[in-house]
Amino acid sequence: MGIATTGLSPVEQTAFLTVYARALDSRWPKPILGDTLADEVVGKIDYDFAGLGVQTSVVCQTALRAKMLDDRVRDFVRRHTDAVVVDLGAGLDSGYYRVAPPPTVDWYSVDLPGIAAVRDEVLPAAPQSHTVAASLTDRGWPDGIPADRPTMLIADGLFAFLTEPAIVGIFRRITEHFASGELAFNDYGRIGWVSRVAIKLYPQKMFKDVGSQFGYPGFKDAHYPETWNPRMRLIEEASLTYAPEVDLFPGWIRVMSKMARYSKTGRRKARILRYAF
Questions:
Q1: Digitized pLDDT (tens) for each residue of the chain, 277 residues in all
Q2: Is the pTM here over 0.85, yes or no?
Q3: What is the maximal distance between C-alpha atoms in the chain?
Q4: For residue 84, how many C-alpha atoms fall within 13 Å in the half-sphere facing its CB?
Q5: What is the rounded distance in angstroms from the CA atom of residue 189 to the CA atom of residue 220?
Q6: Structural domains for the chain
Q7: CA-CA distances (angstroms) from residue 117 to 43, 102, 111, 129?
Q8: Which residues fall within 8 angstroms of residue 47, CB to CB, at 6 or more apart?
């Protein structure tokens, strides 16, 4: 019998989608991310992961955006050996173990109490890895995290589930608490009504569960978040469609991803945005 998950809220359960997608990627002969620990985590939890109906395209994008965020964390840690890394809405992500930062780096994984408790059960303990059980809509979420060291904050699949006022609050709280650093997150561009209708029409459970939790329609211009907090400055907009790992995608997904490079909308649907403060 695996770890029970019946007490988790619907938004907390969205963490199962991303960890399962990373687990499926790790089983491929030529994985994009190769997170075998994600597969171990899935094996410890009592949940119908197969019932999510996770599509191959979702596995590809989930694995690639995680790898791209990992690469940016590695670069930041290389430049700042005394860094603090903060994973916002961490869920069951094992980024700390993939990046394997030096012992001079502290890593904080922030998420709601229910999924944070599951995280502590399924992932191995490490002296520099810390779980923060808190809602990111609570101003106090960063209070226990060091504020005077270079800080790299990441958010994978988080902001689509929050309202714009909540996201603005997080952006402002970051610079109120942390002295300097960067924020990197994945973004989907503008989520229009056509996309919302398409999600509702999909028979897969994953689309019904995730689509019901969407709280923010997104934005086109990557400079738009700068209006939320003038201390945030856009330093990178990287489309997943240009990543070399796209060559590892299965046939038609690889072709469609490369074709998306030629459309502004297509490029924005899968991108990593990075801001300095």
A1: 689 898 999 899 999 999 999 999 999 999 999 999 999 999 999 999 999 999 999 999 999 999 999 999 999 999 999 999 999 999 999 999 999 999 999 999 999 999 999 999 999 999 999 999 999 999 999 999 999 999 999 999 999 889 999 999 999 999 999 999 999 999 999 865 444 544 455 555 544 555 444 467 899 999 999 999 999 999 999 999 999 999 999 999 999 999 999 999 999 999 999 999 9
A2: yes
A3: 50
A4: 21
A5: 5
A6: 10-276 (3.40.50.150)
A7: 17, 25, 9, 14
A8: 2, 5, 16
Residues found in the chain: 277
The amino acid that residue 204 corresponds to is: Q
